[in-house]
Amino acid sequence: MLQSLSIKNYALINRLTVDFSDGMTTITGETGAGKSILLGALSLVLGKRADRSALYNDTIKCIVEAQFDVSNYDLKKFFEQNELDYEAETVLRREIIPNGKSRAFINDTPVTLDVLESLGTLLVDVHSQHQTLTLTQNDFQFAILDAFANNSKVLVDYKAILSKYQAIGAEITQIESRLQKANEEQEYQHFLYQELLDANLTPDMQEPLEDRVSQLGNVEDLQHLFSEAVQRLDQEDHGLLAQLIYLKSLMQQAASKSQVYQKYSERLASVILEVQDLFQELESDSEGLEADPQALERAQNKLQQLYALQKKHQVNTVADLIEKQDFYGAQLEDTKALENRLDALRSEVSPLKIKLEQLADTLHQNRIESAPKLVQELQTYLAAMGMQNAQLKFEIHPASSFLANGKDQLTLLFSANLGSPYQPLKKVASGGELSRIMLAIKAILAQYQHLPTIIFDEIDTGVSGNISNEIAIIMAAMATRMQVFTITHLPQVAAKGKQQFKVYKTDVAGQTQTLLKTLSKEERVIEIAQMLSGDELTQTAKDHAVKLLN
User: Fold this and answer.
1) Total domain count for the chain?
2) What is the CA radius of gyration of the chain?
């Protein structure tokens, strides 16, 4: 329940603090006194948007603060999800700075306007003629019928499974799309992969292969070069080895004359060993050089295969080809993995669909059984409020797919007069009719749900006499189960309040201000008497006021 409201520097309110009780509170006052200003200030703290034009004094900030007892609202999860300190007595605060910016707080913790509004909708239901338009919305009509049908637990289960079912369905659709595309390309990708696999690629194969082709293609030239090299090394008397051996002999002779030259003899001996080793290798390689057309053809074919693959895949190295091979292999593996995942998802979604069908059927049956009972109760309330000939009907048709609230399509039909055809409520009901229908709905829901504080903003406009008395009785009955505020011009309604406030304007230091006053029992008599008779306060009006209050 709303325990207190504090307003500073808002519209025509300079400073105002008021405490509220449980049960029914009525707020009265002349037209233009500022009842809408009071509601506007409360809407700020419930998360509605505002700007600096709302400031009473545009040089200082506006502060609106509301304290709620939330102990019966089961809101701990909301506070945890939004990282807020949970307090049984929770304070919502809104500040509007002169530059037009605003700040919002819950228990002194800064929050976004969205978070403040989300909490505000759980704490207060502001019900005006404008808000009655929600009655024409399909989701709200479902909510009414499901609350009456006690479908809340089934709906929670249904929506939880539906969320999972839709998530899996979305993944199935995505995988099917990917598989369709993959299957269109799979045959060609498999061919490319196999082609690369058959090439037996290794990262360092190209350079040795190119050298092998060059070698086999130039055997005759190489034979001639090696033959001449061997000859120059081993030519009798004039070959390099013979010359080195002779040079070594000369240095040995010099060393015999002086040991200083022994080093040249030793170095020449080392050079001769190296040249002899070179000679043997050259001679061996020369003997091994033979024309092999078949080997050359095989090497050329292999090299051409590499060049063709590189051109085909637009790469420059064998390492790049191997990377392509790995990519195509991974693609084929992914396709297989996707197929396995698709099979698993289809197996998972099947029992979910069965469960959804069962829950949707339960919701449907509960609605079918409850709709006539709800209509009967509504029509009883409407008859008491002067709509004796009004007829309502919930039209429920099965849908072919799973919807947010089951597999039903729902239309609330209305007929205002006997013999008039049923038509969708939103097309034929007037504003006054919608207000009374909404009041009847709220009164019924209050018996089946723990509703938040409700504020009726002049929804009784345009009614009088016995009807106004019946509206007052309905509101008072609701107030035995919840906190009810009603802004009213009807004395019958005002008299039913556990407490009554009067909104009025006054001049303070040359400025008009809106004030709110708690009325005593005696003041309530005067206020209600004036609502009955106008400015001329008669004894009859006073007596009638006392009778209403009693």
Assistant:
1) 3
2) 48
